[in-house]
Amino acid sequence: MSYQIEKREKGYLLFTITRNEKRNAINYEVMEGLSEAIIRSGERDVKALVITGEGNQAFCSGGDLSIFHLLHTKEEAYPMLAKMANILYSLVTLPIPTIALMNGTALGGGMELACACDFRVAKKGSMAGFVQGQQAITTGWGGGALLAEKLPHAAAMKILMEAQLQTADYFYGLGFFDAVYDENPIGACESFLEKLLLADKNVLEAYKRIWIRKWEGSNLRNRIEAEIKNCASLWESESHLSYVKTFIHKKD
């Protein structure tokens, strides 16, 4: 299995990508696991969903290009992009708090996954970035539209356009990361959630729906769809296909 789902006694569901050897890159099985975790988060005794990665090196390195390199045209890329974008939209509109427990590096789609969560708790010294621009594509799972909801436009635009890795402290300084920890990721996450998990679930859901209604009213879903289509078009560009070819050859 590429993932693990565990209900913790403190009242949250823990989803772990268990692909440490692939730097916790997302494949189709991880997508199915995320969908399962979102459904299970509807159980009455689950007050929060925590998403993390296996090991201490990578939270998530984005989409697994060793699998997705088989997608060459926009018609081939669109279904994959739409599938993950739909999952992330379900995650962002999940009516309980969601936390990205970032146990290591987060790249590209890994940052889109983190951005879909309400809170981000990151390992001190780790690196993160929306590096899709280096691959001659844009965010394609909705991360650009989501980042525009989480940060002022100038900060979000600079991060996306420059496509550079930055430290956890950098993102913490922007207010995009909500906490930074030194060791014991689960302990740090549970400390961050301690008071929140004491609240009644009905209260948590009522407050979360304030933001869900805001996102629905701002046509977030339509903006994400436009982002998917744009990325699909760029996916078949000569520049992106050349990047993927180089990436795959390096792995051989």
Characterization of the model:
This protein is of the alpha/beta class. Helix content is 49%, strand content 16%. The protein contains 11 helices and 10 strands. Helix 5 packs antiparallel against helix 6 (153-162). The longest helix has 19 residues, at 74-92. The chain is globular and about 55 Å long. The model has no long low-confidence stretch (mean pLDDT 97).
Helix/sheet category: alpha/beta
Radius of gyration: 17 Å
Helix-strand pattern: EEHEEHHEEHEEHHEHEHHHH
Strand order of the largest sheet: 1-2-3-5-7-10
Shape: globular
Distance between the termini: 24 Å
- Average pLDDT, rounded to a whole number, is 97
Biggest sheet layout: 6 strands, mixed
Question: Helix segment count?
Answer: 11
Regions with pLDDT < 50 over 5+ consecutive residues? none
Percent of residues in helices comes to: 40-55%
Strand content: 15-25%
Number of strands: 10
Protein traits:
252 residues, six-stranded mixed β-sheet, four-stranded mixed β-sheet, 10 strands
Provide a short characterization of the protein structure.
The protein has 252 residues and is α/β, with parallel strands linked by helices. It contains 11 helices and 10 strands.
